[in-house]
Specification:
The protein has 165 residues and is α/β, with parallel strands linked by helices. It has a single domain, classed as 5'-nuclease (Rossmann fold). The protein is built from eight helices and five strands, in the order βααβααβααβαβα. It has a five-stranded parallel sheet with strand order 3-2-1-4-5. Helix 5 crosses helix 6. The longest helix is centred in the middle third of the chain and has 13 residues. 34% of the residues are buried.
Length: 165
């Protein structure tokens, strides 16, 4: 029997979720990061609108990775939907780490939310937003590609959504 991931079943009222964001994208708004809010203010306004509308969400494991107090307050202020791993997500995580063990980093004392991020995207059939290297076989974009999950960085998200600044 071939392992396959389990997508979310259709609901009466479809969820507005379209994207799930990785911690590196969230944290890239900090003053010493590539998409610093002071320069890319309008980008972050658009992202806030999508978070408030539940178009962009995060999973609980990614929330746990964000240890910055100001960013956590921002997520709370925006009313960010935080999806908690359920049985379907946990089953998807098991499939991902069995098929892609390189995703796990055993040298890091902290747990990585990457597998949960991808597993949640699988369940809800939504795209991933991450700033990770698209060429590395150990990173989110390559794992997403293996499961036909769309994966964008913040610039590609802006292009896809036709945001103009």
């Amino acid at each position: 029997m071939v392992d396959t991931y389990l997508p979310e079943q259709m609901a009466f009222h479809p969820l507005p979720y379209r994207y799930i964001m990785d911690s590196c994208s969230i944290l890239s708004q900090k003053p010493d990061e590539p998409h610093r809010r002071g320069v890319y203010h309008t980008l972050w306004q658009k992202i806030e609108e999508y978070i408030e509308a539940k178009i962009i969400v995060i999973c609980s494991e990614i929330k746990a990775e964000v240890e910055d107090k100001d960013i956590n307050l921002w997520l709370q202020k925006c009313g960010c939907e935080i999806i908690v791993a359920d049985e379907i997500v946990q089953n998807n995580v098991a499939i991902i780490v069995n098929q892609h063990p390189q995703l796990l980093d055993f040298t890091n004392a902290k747990s990585s939310g990457d597998a949960f991020l991808i597993a949640t995207a699988m369940k809800y059939q939504i795209a991933v937003i991450t700033e990770e290297n698209k060429l590395s076989h150990k990173k989110i974009p390559k794992i997403c590609q293996a499961y036909n999950i769309p994966c964008y960085n913040l610039t590609e998200l802006a292009e896809k959504e036709k945001w103009k600044f």
